[in-house]
Design brief:
The complex is a heterodimer. By secondary structure, chain A is of the alpha+beta class. Chain A folds into four domains: 184 residues, no CATH class; 130 residues, Dna Ligase, domain 1; 51 residues, no CATH class; 82 residues, no CATH class. Chain A has a six-stranded antiparallel barrel with strand order 9-10-11-12-13-14. The longest helix of chain A is centred in the middle third of the chain and has 20 residues. By secondary structure, chain B is an alpha/beta fold. Chain B has seven helices and ten strands. Classes of the chains: A alpha+beta, B alpha/beta. At the A-B interface, helix 12, strand 7 and strand 9 of A face helix 3, strand 3, helix 4, strand 4 and helix 5 of B.
């Protein structure tokens, strides 16, 4: 339903709030729900959305897939399991559609058909029931709306009608996706659940017989656990990129520490030092009974060859990555950043910061299936490249100041003509007389991006030679100091 | 009668005594302007030392320091920028650096919250051999912390560029070089007066006027040595002894 239609309908009812779709928040919530579902299934995932195609949920993934093979009997049958899941979600205020079947395609159909039938369908694994499920509407295949409307125009409303048509003509008319969905529905095409986060492959745990409060003992255990993980990793030529440590105490929240690394490492001393830096600052829970460490993200180690003549530049780059790890461990990953230019006219939004630790860089991700490691690895520092959407700035190096006030500071400025350039302004109790100015440079933001900003920027030089970047807000004519050419 | 060779010998001995322990044969780093380099004892900035830029906000010292940092970050070394949130003090804005041709792939911005964390991070960055220069606006800096940072820079062979308010002039300092930058009103281009306030092993008190154009720095005029100022800085060691005593 378009927004205009919805608001017209809702105006009769009273209050109406429209919020912009936040895809990232949606995904985060789905991830939280997926984690919640882990008590029902060891493997929880959601549909993979291929951004390049017009795949149907334009708003992003909206379905959770649970592998419940052999789980049903633990809850007294699949129906009860689903009822339990339903109750669990209802407690959070979610009303869900659920279906269970031997393939993802059929389970999805079961869940979607529910919207109309309002009863639970559980298809058995034999083909017979699949055929009888084909009675179900064409909507139970996961198809884009365009295909569905085309099928409706042709008078095809049931899945079995599709099966009677020759496959070749289906392919040429509707493309590969329809056949794929049909096969996935019937179970002839394989579909796997992509787990929403891969379970950590390297973990070590220590359960204490008697809970302890001793910091020394905890540090000792942590160092042993790190050694265990490092020992497992080293022969596989893999290193930790993200390391998590969890200390469970008696009552209260467990202490969770996370260490992100700039470059994969399997060095025991280095990992230990990073964890200890956080342990020192943290307040340990009382009566610690369990300590667990997991390498949540690993990547291939850089091969080091012994060299007769030390290459100082390589050593320097290695030193630099150790520095980044240390900084990120003590200050937090959000404090060690790399600027990224964005093509946004609003100065405060023209740059964003990306954390540099705790992620696999493209060169470190292994080629899927082939298992071949990317051997071409230039200097690690150089691997951090600007994204393609960064915009080139204007050729005038003085177009932007080197230091920016955030938020802009309110000023009292005087201009001779209304809406004209300023001749003096007052800042921190001092009057600055303006000798020269450049501008105005008008910066406006699009109305579709929330609160609109309309500003006239002036680059000014005072009679003492100091340079500032000030603007007049066009909405109310108030002057602000935004930057300084320091 | 002192011969020129004797004086040169003595000068070298003194430089060894008070100077940093960096190798003599290392090429000095240019500040980006040959005339400014000529005012400095080794014909440029030395790796492993600290440089203080004394200036008010909006005076252009930050840009000069950034140009100097570019020279130190050649050959794949990284630039570390300390960017701590302070009230009424603006924050570093990378797009301006990008307009001057900086590559973000070699830039690291540290946004620490507390002053203590910032000093620790500064120390760590200066100590790292993979870092070419550390760029930091610092308002207050204790003498002991200053000495710690100087030793760290010496250890890592990095160039520390500290932007400091003009009011700290005359305070004890462990920087090898202290430059005061004052803007000048000029009808064309951006004109800055750079004065060598103190300089280890060199002549202090000299100043130069530069005009910054889109391509670089051009000297406008230079004034000669001011005889009222001491040639060598007063050692900060005495101040440190007083502080610790």
């Amino acid at each position: 339903m378009p927004l205009a239609e919805a608001s017209a309908l809702a105006q009769r009812g009273g209050r109406f709030i429209a919020l912009a779709h936040n895809r990232a928040a949606d995904l985060a919530e789905l991830a939280r729900l997926a984690e919640k579902c882990e008590r029902f299934s060891p493997l929880v995932g959601w549909e993979t959305v291929d951004a390049s195609t017009d795949w149907w949920p334009a708003t992003g993934p909206a379905h959770l897939f649970l592998d419940i093979t052999g789980i049903g009997r633990l809850f007294g049958g699949e129906e009860r399991l689903i009822a339990e899941i339903r109750r669990d979600f209802a407690r959070e205020g979610y009303e869900i559609e659920a279906g269970a079947a031997s393939t993802i395609g059929r389970a999805w159909g079961g869940g979607e058909v529910q919207i109309e039938d309002c009863k639970l369908q559980i298809a058995n694994s034999n083909l017979q029931s699949a055929i009888c499920n084909l009675q179900s509407k064409i909507h139970s295949l996961r198809l884009p709306p365009a295909t569905l409307s085309l099928l409706a125009q042709l008078g095809i409303t049931r899945a079995e009608e599709l099966l009677r048509l020759p496959r070749e003509s289906l392919r040429s008319r509707f493309g590969e996706r329809l056949l794929l969905r049909l096969d996935q529905f019937l179970g002839t095409a394989q579909e796997t659940i992509v787990p929403h986060h891969p379970p950590p492959r390297f973990q070590a745990e220590w359960i204490l017989e008697y809970p302890t409060d001793s910091r020394e003992l905890v540090e000792q255990i942590v160092s042993q656990l790190v050694a265990r993980i490092a020992q497992e990793l080293a022969p596989r030529q893999e290193g930790v990129v993200q390391l998590a440590c969890r200390l469970d105490g008696a009552g209260g929240k467990p202490l969770q520490l996370s260490v992100g690394l700039f470059r994969p490492s399997a060095q025991r001393q280095h990992l230990e030092e990073l964890l200890r830096m956080q342990l020192e600052q943290a307040q340990l829970p009382r009566q610690i009974g369990r300590i667990g460490i997991a390498a949540q993200l690993t990547a291939a180690l850089e091969n080091l060859q012994a060299e007769l003549f030390a290459d100082s530049s390589r050593e320097a780059s290695r030193d630099f990555s150790l520095l980044i790890d240390r900084l990120a461990s003590r200050l937090g990953p959000t404090a060690v950043l790399q600027p990224v230019l964005r093509s946004d006219p609003l100065p405060e939004r023209a740059v964003s910061y990306a954390p540099v630790v705790g992620k696999k860089r493209r060169s470190e991700v292994r080629g899927q299936g082939s298992g071949v490691r990317s051997r071409k690895r230039k200097s690690q520092i150089r691997n951090l490249k600007l994204p393609a959407d960064s915009c080139p700035l204007s050729p005038d190096p003085y177009s932007r100041p080197l230091f920016l006030h955030h938020p802009p500071l309110l000023l009292a400025a005087v201009s001779v003509v209304p809406d004209g350039p300023p001749i003096s302004f007052e800042f921190q109790g001092q009057t600055h007389r303006i000798d020269r100015h450049w501008g105005p440079e008008r910066i406006e933001t699009g109305w579709w991006r929330g609160r609109s900003h309309r500003r006239d920027y002036y680059r000014v030089e005072t009679i003492t030679g100091h340079r500032y970047w000030i603007f007049r807000r066009l909405a109310d004519g108030k002057w602000h100091l935004h930057g300084e050419y320091a | 009668m002192p011969t020129p060779t004797l004086i040169a010998d003595l000068r070298q001995q003194m430089a060894k005594l008070e100077g940093s322990r960096q190798p003599e044969d290392e090429e000095p780093l240019s500040t980006g302007c040959r005339e400014l380099d000529r005012l400095l004892p080794r014909g440029g900035l030395a790796r492993g030392t600290l440089v203080e830029w004394l200036a008010d906000q909006g005076s252009g010292a930050g840009m000069l320091a950034l140009l100097a940092a570019r020279q130190a970050c050649r050959a794949g070394r990284a630039l570390v920028v300390m960017d701590r949130q302070r009230s009424f003090y603006p924050r570093f804005y990378p797009p301006a650096a990008a307009a001057w041709g900086y590559d973000f792939a070699q830039m690291l911005v540290i946004r620490s919250v507390s002053e203590e964390d910032e000093l620790w991070a500064l120390d760590q960055a200066l100590r790292c051999r993979g870092v070419g220069a550390v760029y930091a606006p610092l308002l207050q800096l204790g003498v002991q912390d200053f000495r710690r940072l100087q030793l760290a820079a010496e250890c890592g062979g990095t160039l520390g560029l500290f932007l400091r308010p003009a009011t700290v002039r005359g305070d004890p300092s462990w920087a090898d070089l202290q430059l005061a930058v004052r803007p000048r009103a000029s009808p064309a281009g951006r004109r800055l007066c750079v004065e060598v306030v103190r300089c280890r092993g060199g002549t202090a008190g000299r100043s130069i006027e530069l005009t910054i154009t889109g391509t670089g720095m051009v000297p406008t005029m230079s004034t000669s040595h001011d005889p009222d100022r001491p040639t060598y800085p007063l050692p900060a060691t005495a101040e440190l002894a007083r502080a610790t005593g």
